Amino acid sequence: MFTKKLIYLNEGAINGRISQLNTQKDYFQNLVNRLKNNNIKVTTDDLIRLIEDPKTFIIVSLTGGENLKVGTLSINNNKLFDLMDVSDEIKSIIDDINKISNDKIKNEFYHFKVNLFCVNNGLVELTKEYLNLIENQNSVYIENKKQLEVYNIFEDFVKNLNELSKYGLNISLEDNFFKVDSNNKLIVDIIFFSQIKSKIK
Questions:
Q1: What is the DSSP letter of 95?
Q2: Model confidence over 20-50: pLDDT tens digits?
Q3: Are 55 and 93 in contact (CB under 8 A)?
């Protein structure tokens, strides 16, 4: 069985894609930090729920997910939130999230990217799945034996072309050093060779 071989990795493009998401990462990290300061821990799944419905997430976090009742009547989340002694900072967090959600451009810039992030011990990071996707999109692999054989032929060709520098020749593909014969095969262009042979000592 052929093992896929990496032959090119565009680290500049990968780092560029990652850095493009630094603003969103900092935004989500700030939310996680603010909630942590209010004794609310955020996990990866929590981050998505927080963005989708911040008030419900806060209520569930503070009540442990229990349904509170007065007698036989359940108290809905909005009413329960009004009855709870919630800090101004918690209210501010909810307001900040809702403001961005209600702004189409900011919502797309920030909240639409939430699925690309995870929370690892309180630190917001890009998910392994997304990092792998970026890497695969900016990599070239040899995926079978025939591809490897063709790649090796190209490598040998380039190596031989570079070997000409030992003879004082600087030949590139832009030089017309080959032509097509009657059998549709590439052959050395004799006229080209006759023009450069005097340089070879």
A1: H
A2: 999 999 999 999 999 999 999 999 999 999 9
A3: no
Local structure of residue 170 (DSSP, 8 states) = -
Tell me the whole-structure pTM to 2 decimals. 0.76
Backbone φ and ψ for 177, nearest 5 degrees, come out as -90, 0
Which three-class secondary structure state does DSSP give residue 67?
Answer: coil
How many angstroms separate the most distant Cα atoms in the chain? 105
Contacts of 47 (CB under 8 A, 6+ apart): 28, 31, 32, 114, 117, 118, 119, 124
What percentage of the chain reaches a pLDDT higher than 70? Answer: 90
Distances (CA, A) of 56 to 49, 59, 140, 181: 8, 5, 45, 76
The encoded tokens of residue 201 equal 């000592």
Cα distance between residue 96 and residue 106, in whole Å: 12
Stated as kind and residue range, the H or E segment containing 123 is strand 123-126
Q: Rounded to the nearest 10 degrees, how much is the dihedral formed by the CA atoms of 22, 28, 29, 32? A: -170
Q: d(Cα 33, Cα 41) in Å, to the nearest integer?
A: 9
